[in-house]
Amino acid sequence: MSFTPIVDEQGFAAFPAPAKLNLFLHIVGRRQDGYHLLESVFQLIDAHDTIWLRLRHDGQIVHHNPLPGVPAELDLTVRAARLLQPKESDWGVDIRVDKRLPMGGGVGGGSSDAATVLLALNQLWQLDYSRADLMTLGLRLGADVPFFIFGQNAFVEGIGEIMTAIATPHRHYVLLHPQVHVSTPEIFKDPLLTRNSPSIKVGDLEEAVTRNDLQACAVRKYPEIAEQLALLKPFGDARMTGSGSCVFVEMPSQAAANAVLCGLLESISGLVVSTLDRHPLYEYAK
Ligand SMILES: C[C@](O)(CO)[C@H](O)COP(=O)(O)OP(=O)(O)OC[C@H]1O[C@@H](n2ccc(N)nc2=O)[C@H](O)[C@@H]1O
Ligand SMILES: Nc1ncnc2c1ncn2[C@@H]1O[C@H](COP(=O)(O)OP(=O)(O)OP(=O)(O)O)[C@@H](O)[C@H]1O
């Protein structure tokens, strides 16, 4: 069934932008242009930003609450709207973002915000772009945008653009956010990064031994990540998502995850998350 947004008293409609976890991330090679060939399972989770949109009919795209340190014109929500806006069109939009997802946390917040704007405006502006069209547009904004438009949990290959939908079990995680901003290019450039993990076929995922190949480099540069991984280690196979900084561990139930989170130090920033089967706006593209 298609998602129906709540509308506030000012006429803004609310659209969720969910986060992702990289359940593992292997680097299996490097292209001539320096980009890395990766293999990863991308898992949608129920932590999300909320993007509030209100239609305008004067062609303007207005961001009402820019993020600290991100000028409105550089915000991925505004860039996504500009990319989609037809030339010479009267369609415009007011944008407000309730930011909950940690920025630079490896949970894909900025990419998901952009994907939600593309999916929602495709409907509100009655553009009728196909999912494939929106994924191609989205790639211009960031490597993870096509995944959120794809809208299903996926085995991802190539430099991040080849996706195969996979069924993943319903799971619960404790997710911690070490308060450091990891530079993605810096981690990929690290001479100590291993780039020769053996390639996995999608059919072999269940038996595969997996890890995040970016984790060793991130931990060397940011001891805070190692400290928070150590906090989760007693509960299972704790690992980092994306290029960090967030770390997570699977728990047998939501109650068990809540108990672990409550038992951690007060100064730790974290949350309990559960998996999603599909992006809430999946039906907004065909
Ligand atoms: C590693 C992941 O977090 C997995 O979800 C993402 O693919 C990274 O996505 P992102 O933060 O949106 O990063 P992008 O802005 O696309 O890429 C940042 C930089 O990371 C490096 N990069 C990224 C993706 C890739 N397959 N190989 C790379 O070498 C490149 O130096 C690139 O300039
Ligand atoms: N709407 C937005 N939300 C978050 N970040 C944004 C947004 N627009 C632009 N940015 C910029 O993008 C940078 C990366 O943000 P993001 O939260 O997507 O990182 P991430 O979770 O590490 O992503 P990934 O998992 O793709 O590596 C931010 O530091 C910020 O400068």
Automatic annotation (TrEMBL):
Record domain GHMP kinase N-terminal: where? 76-152
Q: Does the keyword Nucleotide-binding apply?
A: yes
Known EC number? 2.7.1.148
Q: Which UniProt keywords apply?
A: ATP-binding, Isoprene biosynthesis, Kinase, Nucleotide-binding, Transferase
Q: Which residues bind ATP?
A: P102, M103, G104, G105, G106, V107, G108, G109, G110, S111, S112
Q: Write the lineage as a comma-separated list.
A: Bacteria, Pseudomonadati, Pseudomonadota, Betaproteobacteria, Neisseriales
Q: Which gene encodes it?
A: ispE
What pathway is it annotated to? Answer: Isoprenoid biosynthesis; isopentenyl diphosphate biosynthesis via DXP pathway; isopentenyl diphosphate from 1-deoxy-D-xylulose 5-phosphate: step 3/6
> What family name appears in the similarity comment?
Belongs to the GHMP kinase family. IspE subfamily.
Pfam families, sorted: GHMP_kinases_C, GHMP_kinases_N
InterPro entries recorded: GHMP_kinase_C_dom, GHMP_kinase_C_sf, GHMP_kinase_N_dom, IspE, Ribosomal_Su5_D2-typ_SF, Ribsml_uS5_D2-typ_fold_subgr
Protein function: Catalyzes the phosphorylation of the position 2 hydroxy group of 4-diphosphocytidyl-2C-methyl-D-erythritol.
Annotated active site: K20, D144
Specify whether Transferase is a keyword of the entry.
yes
Q: Which part of the chain is the GHMP kinase C-terminal domain?
A: 204-262
Tell me what reaction this enzyme catalyses.
4-CDP-2-C-methyl-D-erythritol + ATP = 4-CDP-2-C-methyl-D-erythritol 2-phosphate + ADP + H(+)
Q: What is this protein called?
A: 4-diphosphocytidyl-2-C-methyl-D-erythritol kinase
An example of a GO molecular function for this protein is:
4-(cytidine 5'-diphospho)-2-C-methyl-D-erythritol kinase activity
